[in-house]
Specification:
Structural class: alpha/beta
Radius of gyration: 38 Å
Shape: elongated
Strand content: 5-15%
Length: about 240
C-alpha cells in the first residue's frame, strides 16, 4: 500500500517578518498590535486625567460651599478684631431687637439705614441676599466704606436741618402737615423743610421693608439732628405699596 505524504512548505514572503522563535508575524498585524497598545495607553491616561480633574472640581466645589459669603466673613472679621465696644455704640439688646425685625422680613428684604456706624457691616450681613442701602452725612465716610467694602451701597446727603432749629421745625411741620409736609407725597418735589429730596432718584422708587434711623449726628446744637431722617423715613414707609 502506497501512502502519500503531504508536505507543506512555508516560503518566506515579502509581506512577513521573522518572529522570535523562528515564527513569522505579518507586518500589518504588528502595526495593529502597536495601535491597540497606543489606544489602550491613551484611554487609560485620559481616564486617569479625567478622574483627577473631576476630583479637583468636586474639592473646589466643596470648598466654595464651605466658605462664608464675603459680606458675612468681613463682618465677623471686623467685630472679632474690634476693640471693646465704647459708649455710643448699640447695646446687645438693641442689636438683637433690630436683628429680629430683619429676620422676620420676607426675603429679599429692602433695608434702608440712615447713618454709617460701627454696626454697618453687621446690618449688611444680616440682610444677606437682600438689598441694604446706607445714607450718611459724610461724603468722606461714604467713600471710605466703599473703598474698603465695595459690596456696600452707600450715598452721602447734605442735611439742611440743625438741632438748634428743633422747635421751629416742629411748628413748620404742624402748619404744613396737609400741604408740603403731608405724610404721603413725592419727596423729590417736596418743599417741606424736613424732607430729604436730594438722594439718587431710584432710592425713592424702592418699596422699603425696613428703615433704620441711626444717624445723622444730633448731640450738639450745630449737628443736623435726626428730624429730617425720621420724617423722610415715615414718608418712604407710607409710599410702600399697599400702605396708606
Amino acid at each position: 500500500m502506497k501512502t502519500t505524504a503531504k508536505f507543506i512548505v512555508l516560503h518566506p514572503s515579502v509581506h512577513k517578518t521573522p518572529a522570535a522563535g523562528g515564527g513569522v508575524v505579518p507586518i500589518h498585524r504588528a502595526w495593529l498590535a502597536v495601535f491597540i497598545l497606543f489606544f489602550i495607553f491613551t484611554f487609560a491616561f485620559t481616564l486617569i486625567s479625567t478622574k483627577n480633574a473631576a476630583a479637583k472640581a468636586i474639592a473646589s466645589s466643596d470648598a466654595d460651599k464651605s466658605q462664608l459669603p464675603k459680606p458675612i466673613f468681613d463682618a465677623l472679621l471686623h467685630y472679632t478684631s474690634a476693640n471693646v465696644t465704647p459708649s455710643g455704640r448699640m447695646s446687645s439688646a438693641e442689636m438683637k431687637s433690630i436683628a429680629a425685625v430683619l429676620h422676620g422680613c420676607a426675603a429679599p428684604c429692602n433695608f434702608l439705614v440712615f447713618g454709617l456706624t460701627h454696626e454697618t457691616l453687621l446690618w449688611n450681613s444680616l440682610n444677606h441676599n437682600g438689598r441694604t442701602v446706607f445714607v450718611d452725612e459724610s461724603s468722606y465716610f461714604v467713600s471710605k466704606i466703599e473703598e474698603k467694602h465695595p459690596s456696600i451701597e452707600a450715598y452721602d446727603v447734605q442735611f439742611t436741618t440743625k438741632v438748634s432749629e428743633l422747635y421751629d421745625l416742629i411748628e413748620h411741620y404742624k402748619r404744613e402737615i396737609k400741604n408740603d409736609c403731608r405724610p404721603v407725597q413725592n419727596l423729590l418735589f417736596s418743599d417741606c423743610k424736613l424732607a430729604i429730596n436730594d438722594l439718587p432718584n431710584h432710592i425713592y422708587d424702592v418699596a422699603w421693608d425696613v428703615i433704620l434711623v441711626e444717624g445723622p449726628r444730633g448731640y450738639f446744637a450745630g449737628a443736623p439732628g435726626r428730624m429730617a431722617a425720621i420724617f423722610t423715613a415715615g414718608v418712604l414707609a407710607r409710599n410702600k405699596k399697599n400702605i396708606e
